Amino acid sequence: MKNIVVLTGAGMSAESGIKTFRDDDGLWEGHDIMEVASPEGWQNNQEKVLEFYNIRRKQLLEVEPNAAHHAIVKLEEKYHVDIITQNVDDLHERAGSQNVLHLHGELLKVRSSIDEDLVIEWRKDLKTGDLCSKQSQLRPCVVWFGEAVPMFQPAVEITRKADILIIIGTSMQVYPAASLLDFKKESAPVYFIDPKPSIYPNPSVKIIEKNAVEGVVTLVEELLKNEGELLL
Fold first, then answer.
1. How far is CA 184 from CA 7, 58, 102, 110, 173, in A?
2. Average pLDDT in the chain
3. Residue 59: enclosing H or E segment and its boundaries?
4. For residue range 161-197, what is the model confidence (pLDDT) as tens digits?
């Protein structure tokens, strides 16, 4: 059974109604992203950071997986599928995907601000005064700008095993996630699905200039029909 690794970014979830992490002006909900997604922002104004993620958490609970999420699940009929997602939502899991690695954390979890391994499932608002068992303030279980990405090495090991790599809805401009391409097998073809692709085609890279739903559904149908035969 061939291994497919799927790397997903904001464009994957956008069609479920989740806002991309930042608009063209670099703002999200009117905030400078560094004010709400960095250790400095947390230190300067915890209330603002907590409210930012409370809004996003509420939004996540109101949306559903889209056709692209469901299409990826179908690949498991004939392939071993691993998903490496830069998204902090749980839409892949809700669609039924079995193997999902979250590079940048999970919105429906919180963690201790002094122990990153003390993690709790969380679906309500997070407020100042909500403490972990070590009596420290709970914070979003999300990797902020300037923080280490603890799941990067496991993602590298998964990427190395890919017979086929599918990239969906990500600019491949944010590191270290963007460097995962460097770890794939030379023989593994890449399918890059994005309406505004940021990388160039080459003999091993096929660009599919479509949104996530249209591009993924079409590619999955072809992969299931051809059972791993190269479509480049």
1. 12, 36, 18, 32, 17
2. 91
3. helix 46-60
4. 999 999 999 988 778 888 999 999 999 999 999 998 8
Q: Residues 41, 49: contact at Cβ < 8 Å?
A: yes
Q: Strands, E, within 68-223: which ranges?
A: 80-85, 100-102, 105-112, 119-121, 138-142, 164-168, 190-193, 205-208
pTM: 0.93
When the candidates are 3.50.50.60, 3.10.129.10, 3.90.1300.10, 3.40.50.1220, the CATH number that belongs to 1-18+65-104+148-232 is 3.40.50.1220
Query: What is the set of active-site residues?
Result: 104
List pLDDT tens digits, range 95-114: 999 999 999 999 999 999 99
* pLDDT band, very low/low/confident/very high, at 27 (cuts 50, 70, 90): very low
Domain 19-62+108-142, CATH number (from 3.30.1600.10, 3.40.50.10610, 3.90.1310.10, 3.40.30.10): 3.30.1600.10
